[in-house]
Amino acid sequence: MKNYAKFVIIFGICMAAGIILFVIVSGNKGKSISVSNEKMLILNDIAKDAEEKMDSPDRFGEKDYGVDFVVLDNNEKEVYKTPGADGKTAGIVGNNERFTTEDAIKNRLPYKHVIKDERNLGTVILLDSPEEGLADYKFRLVMGMIVMAVLFLAGAVIYGVYIDKNIVKPFDRMQSFAGKVAEGKLDEPLMMEENNMFGVFTESFDIMREELSESKKREIELQRKEKELIASLSHDIKTPITGIKLTTELLEAKLNQYIREEAAKTGTDAADSTELEIQRDTDILDKLDNIYKKADEIDSLVSDLFSATLEDLGEFKVNCEDEESGVLSEIIKKNDSKGLVVESELPKLIIHIDAKRMSQVIGNIISNSYKYAGTKINVEYRLKDKYLEMIIKDYGPGVSRDELELITNKFYRGKQAEADNKEGSGLGLYIAKSLMVKMNGELICYSDDTGFEVTVLIPIS
What angle do CA 266, 272, 277 make, to 5 degrees? Predict the structure, then answer.
């Protein structure tokens, strides 16, 4: 603010100087008027002398009046003129014409009739017009106004430059900086310039940027640690779940063996053994089967959570290799535990995939159809450009059109799935789509009245 006050004082001094100069340049009005009055008095003196000298024109030269004049008789003939009058009269009427009173009137020259004994002896015409002083004053006034305008304009320009440099541009930089901070761009500092009126604010803004940057780094680090913890827990949970599944399978196998041994002792055949197994241990087998299914569901959910967390951490690796297309049939058989998949003829070619991740993609799609449709699943293949199209279609209720773009989003579950209280995490199709993108392929969902369809574009080697 001190620099601004200095500038205002300098600007005020310039304006005062301009006003003083204006007064000086245009301050000769009184002098011009007094000069004009003096000339009129001289004209009266010449006219008075002319009353005595009209008959003797040579006598007009006896006295120097300090002005140029012409004396005409009552017939408009020239009686006398001063030596300097030739050029002035010639400029009015031309060198070959006679100067008259009418010419004086037209050119607004002061004149006075010479009257003696009530007779008009002639006319005295003063060739120096009093309007010349007024014209000079007007010229000085105009020049003074021009000078004043130039000074004001220069002052305005200087003031504008000062405002632009010290207020407008710093404010624009602060506005741009605030926009970058809002966008999360916290690495670029706000530069501080000397004599900046917003210096304190600029420094405060930059301190705020640094604090926000540090806070964001801490937040990112905490989020990373949180995701690493989830990934670690997900991985660790899979071990006991696998143990539960294996234990359940072992108990079921031992129970079946016990039933067969008991059946052998009584001499019953295999059919009777099966009937006896159902009759005696149905409740136990059902519970073991339920334990296995729940453990399998937990295993699937934990696997999806683990994969999604690795994706967030950027650690979800895909290692693509050339594989024979027959690997797709093997993957389908591995994941079709209910035997609902009907596969069409598979073209023989080489595809470029990560077989382990492709198994995850197809497994998630088939698992979704099991859960939400429960119908047969048709798998067809088509060649399209540099891709093998794998079309997986079920005949369930499908999803609405407004949900098609959302079902591959993280944690999104369809409205129908929520209404039916279907268990799930909303990660299956998200992971499948992410994996296909990493394998330079694509996953496209489609739904109509006939069911739900997923098209997987697999790169051909």
Answer: 90
Beta-bridge partners for 459: 387
Q: Long-range pairs for 102-108 at CB < 8 Å and ≥24 separation?
A: none
- Residue 427 burial by Cβ neighbours in a 10 Å radius (0-12, 13-18, 19+): buried
Read off the pLDDT of residues 276-304 as tens digits, 9 standing for 90 and up: 555 555 677 677 777 767 776 676 666 66
Question: Which tokens go with 104?
Answer: 């004086």
Whether 432 contacts 365, CB under 8 Å: yes
CB 26 within 8 A of CB 18: no
Q: Residues 38-85: pLDDT tens digits?
A: 777 888 888 888 888 887 877 777 788 888 888 888 888 888 888 877
Nearest-angstrom CA–CA distance, 166 and 160: 10
**Burial class of residue 274, CB neighbours in 10 A (0-12, 13-18, 19+):** middle
Contact (Cβ atoms closer than 8 angstroms) between residue 320 and residue 352: yes
The Cα–Cα gap between 367 and 369 comes to 5
Which of 413, 432, 409 is CA-nearest to residue 423? 413
* CA atoms of 179 and 166, how far apart (whole Å): 21
Contact, 367 vs 300, CB < 8 A?
Answer: yes
Q: Structure tokens of 139?
A: 């010229």
In whole angstroms, give the CA distance from residue 371 to residue 360: 16
